[in-house]
């Protein structure tokens, strides 16, 4: 689960458009009965990290103990328009 910023400019003097991608991991899709030829999921509805960000436990789900890659990835993109011109936005004030 993370937040990624991707700044974009509409035009050289136009407004600055900033998009944010929010990544969430939803229900677990691990097939626990694959070894016997069946299909069974554990019912875990959303990924919750077992540890702090940056550790190996951050990739393990606290609810079902599966790796984050077994959970369905959902990406939401949100765009925000800054009312200032791109020149004002890129030049720091003193």
UniProtKB/TrEMBL annotation:
Pfam families: ZF-HD_dimer. InterPro entries: ZF_HD_homeobox_Cys/His_dimer. It is found in: Cytoplasm. Transmembrane segments: none annotated. Residues 25-74 form the ZF-HD dimerization-type domain. Its main location: cytoplasm. Keywords: Cytoplasm, Metal-binding, Zinc, Zinc-finger. One of its GO terms (biological process) is regulation of DNA-templated transcription. GO terms for cellular component: cytoplasm; nucleus. GO terms for molecular function: DNA-binding transcription factor activity; transcription cis-regulatory region binding; zinc ion binding. This is (wild Malaysian banana) hypothetical protein. It comes from Musa acuminata subsp. malaccensis (Wild banana).
């Amino acid at each position: 689960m993370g937040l990624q910023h991707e700044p974009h400019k509409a035009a050289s003097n136009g407004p600055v458009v900033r998009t944010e991608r929010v990544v969430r991991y939803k229900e677990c899709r691990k097939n626990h009965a694959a070894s016997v030829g069946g299909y069974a999921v554990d019912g875990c509805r959303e990924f919750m990290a077992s540890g702090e960000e940056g550790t190996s436990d951050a990739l393990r789900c606290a609810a079902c103990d599966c790796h984050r890659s077994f959970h369905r990835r959902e990406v939401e993109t949100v765009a925000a328009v800054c009312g200032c011109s791109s020149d004002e936005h890129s030049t720091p004030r003193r």
